[in-house]
Design brief:
single chain; alpha+beta; eight-stranded mixed sheet; five-stranded mixed sheet; disordered N terminus; binds 2-oxoglutaric acid; IPNS-like_sf
Length: 378
């Protein structure tokens, strides 16, 4: 597995990264991929061409067969008898261990709200460029309209633009950094955020119970009411050479848990399973849930934060909404004492999420190198 930090002592890398503050500016002028998509007819700029080993490969990509991440009906948790409830908990537990990913249906979030949130964002990306440019982001906080992750000069870039905003903590929520257009968007995104915080809270209880911890364990470890929540909306324009690039490079999510609302028409998300990439087939009105690095650490690697990436295509654009549910940024996250045993010692040293996410803010998406670098020295 690719690791950017493989050759260096991990704790040293972590410390170096932490001592550097986030840079204020991008290292090169920003090019909007949406604009490129309009002018590139048969080729793409070299900056977007991935090395051979990272390109989508039909031999290792399984989108033609039945392989899919598990689809789990959450209805039983609310309304089911003890037997179906236990069976749902078991399905979630197995999905967290085997896949790090699952889809949930009957999750309690209104389908109308889901469709409205996605379509409102789609409209945002179709606004004139001068409107979107008013929200251009910087690597300091990443909030706003962006076109790259990471600040390495000369890095190979991904074929996507995005919009990033904060819901929680309230001290970081700033409507001035949210788009004002389309007119209803702040209202829609507010309600969407509220509903997803509620759903995430329920899932945190399920995960805690499945780990045989107190039901509020994970929530409390995340800081109780003081958690962080943010949204990255990904926009993947059409690409004339989809076999040469990626919409989003392979990465694991640095935060706690992610609830993804995928495009309802176009697939693109691929999840790593051993040496294969499984293309997710989204169920209608499902959320795709995945375990992030912080829950991998808290669960002492019982649950896996799994690598995923996004492929693009030549005739359809794609939109996805990734909602990140994260620990309070300044509390140390380490394996739960209850999950540390003589035959399973603590696999990770403690680190705050503020310290941890500097990795991804500086380097951009790069496999599982972030969580691997946290491993306790042995
Ligand atoms: O677009 C997708 O389906 C996945 C997005 C994703 O992995 C992310 O935003 O971290």
């Amino acid at each position: 597995m690719k690791s950017t930090f493989e050759s260096k002592p991990t704790t040293q890398v972590a410390k170096t990264m932490i001592n550097n503050n986030s840079p204020q500016e991008w290292p090169e002028p920003i090019v909007r991929v949406q604009s490129l998509s309009k002018i590139c007819k048969d080729s793409i700029p070299e900056r977007y061409i991935k090395p051979l080993s990272d390109r989508p490969n039909p031999i290792t990509s399984c989108d033609h067969d039945d392989a899919n991440i598990p689809i789990i009906d959450l209805g039983a948790l609310l309304y089911g008898d003890p037997y179906t409830r236990a069976s749902t908990l078991k399905q979630i537990s197995e999905a967290c261990k085997e896949w790090g990913f699952f889809q949930v249906v009957n999750h309690g979030v209104s389908h109308e709200l889901m469709d409205m949130a996605r379509e409102t964002w789609r409209q945002f990306f179709h606004l004139p460029m001068e409107v979107k440019q008013q929200y251009a982001n910087s690597p300091k906080t990443y909030e706003g309209y962006g076109s790259r992750l990471g600040v390495e000069k000369g890095a190979i870039l991904d074929w996507s633009d995005y919009y990033y905003l904060h819901y929680l903590p309230l001290s970081l929520k700033d409507y001035g950094k949210w788009p004002a257009m389309p007119p209803s968007c702040r209202e829609v995104f507010d309600e969407y955020g509220r509903e997803l915080v509620k759903l995430s809270g329920k899932l945190m209880k399920v995960l805690s119970i499945n780990l045989e911890l107190e039901e509020d364990f994970l929530q409390n470890a995340f800081g109780g009411e003081d958690i962080g929540a943010c949204l990255r909306v990904n926009f993947y324009p059409k690409c004339p050479k989809p076999d040469l690039t990626l919409g989003l490079s392979s990465h694991s999510d640095p935060g706690g848990m992610t609830l993804l609302l995928p495009d309802d028409q176009v697939t693109g998300l691929q999840v790593r399973k051993s040496n294969n990439w499984i293309t997710v087939k989204p169920a209608r009105h499902a959320f795709i849930v995945n375990i992030g690095d912080q829950i991998q650490v808290l669960s002492n690697a019982i649950y896996k934060s799994v690598e995923h990436r996004v492929i693009v295509n030549s005739d359809k654009e794609r939109v996805s909404l990734a909602f990140f549910y994260n620990p309070k940024s300044d509390i140390p996250i380490e394996p739960a004492k209850e999950l540390v045993k003589p035959d399973r010692p603590a696999l990770y040293t403690a680190m705050t999420f503020d310290e941890y996410r500097l990795f991804i803010r500086l380097r951009g998406p790069c496999g599982k190198s972030h969580v691997e670098s946290l491993k306790s020295p042995r």
